[in-house]
Amino acid sequence: MTHLDFVIKVGGGAITNKKIIETPQSDVMHTVASVLAKCYEAGLHFIILHGAGSFGHHQCKDYKVNEGFRNCSSSDVVQQRKIGAALGRASVTKLGVIFTNELIKCGIPALMVSTFSTWQTDNGQVCKYDCGLIEQALIDNFVPVLSGDVVFDVTKGCSVLSSDVLMKKLCERFLVKRAIFVMNCSGIFSKPPEEPGATLLREVQVDENGGISARLQTDSTVPDVTGGISAKIELGAQIIARHSGQIPVLYCSPDHYTLYRICVLDSTEGIDVTKLVYKPRLTELESSSTKTGVL
Fold first, then answer.
1. CA 145 vs CA 7, 81, 261, 271, 280: distances in Å
2. Which residues on adjacent β-strands are paired with residue 48?
């Protein structure tokens, strides 16, 4: 299996303004690209994922693309869903080109790999995917770039596959040293960070079933057809549980200093970041042994 220093998912909320349709955050893209260029120069091996943000989510939500085009009430609805799928794909592809061009400008031989062409779902769950192009890109020292996208779905006709799910699957397919989620804030907060009383959760414990220790209040005011922050945390927790904590999962801001320490130096010292920590629950026997002092 191919070894990777990290897989990084750059959130759509970080590189776009999610409240204004198809609005990139060019300064953030440049910051992320410049740090990743340092990683490439240092000989690190990695895959880049990115969310759609205001590119794709609006179209997919308005046209109910995630519900698919099979078993619709009329041919008009079928046609509208298909139009929505095409619009969503076109929009997220546009963002992919903008972001990839920024990566290339910073000196990274970044290659867009189409999620649509190589992944398929069945009722929203990944049922087939091909990493052949990703493998070849890594062998030849390119940097693969994938995004969340509209894909064909066996049951529904089409569905929206998030880059968070891609992260989980790539962590299963490759030997990954760490998984990094770049957000539009410093990590995971107890509530939306702009609200009074919000606090950064520096550690969130995850048990062997993927359950987390924190209770979170999330924001549902912006369009996100892939589940928003809740889905990102859940999928991160699944990575921790599946690999028994062997793949650290980090959530951080796109700040240059923060990204440099995490990506280039492999350090979280002195920065604001959320780290998922594996803490399996004691079995009934272990709990009893601990109470009696027997191990």
1. 10, 27, 22, 26, 34
2. 8, 145
pLDDT in tens, 200-229: 999 999 999 999 877 666 655 555 454 567
- 159 and 153 Cβ atoms separated by less than 8 Å: yes
Structure tokens at 85: 């799928």
Assess whether pLDDT exceeds 50 at residue 295. Answer: no
- pLDDT of 150 strictly over 70: yes
pTM above 0.85, yes or no: yes
Residue pair 141/159 in contact (Cβ under 8 Å)? The answer is no
DSSP of 241-294: HHTTT-S-EEEE---HHHHIIIIIS---TTS--EEEEE-PPPPHHHHHHHHHT-
Q: Report long-range pairs for 281-290 (Cβ below 8 Å, ≥24 apart).
A: 281/207, 281/208
Averaged over 53-74, what is the pLDDT?
94
Can you tell me the distance from the alpha carbon of 268 to that of 215, in angstroms, rounded to the nearest whole number? Answer: 23
Six token digits for residue 32 = 């992320």
Residue located via tokens 């969310």: 51
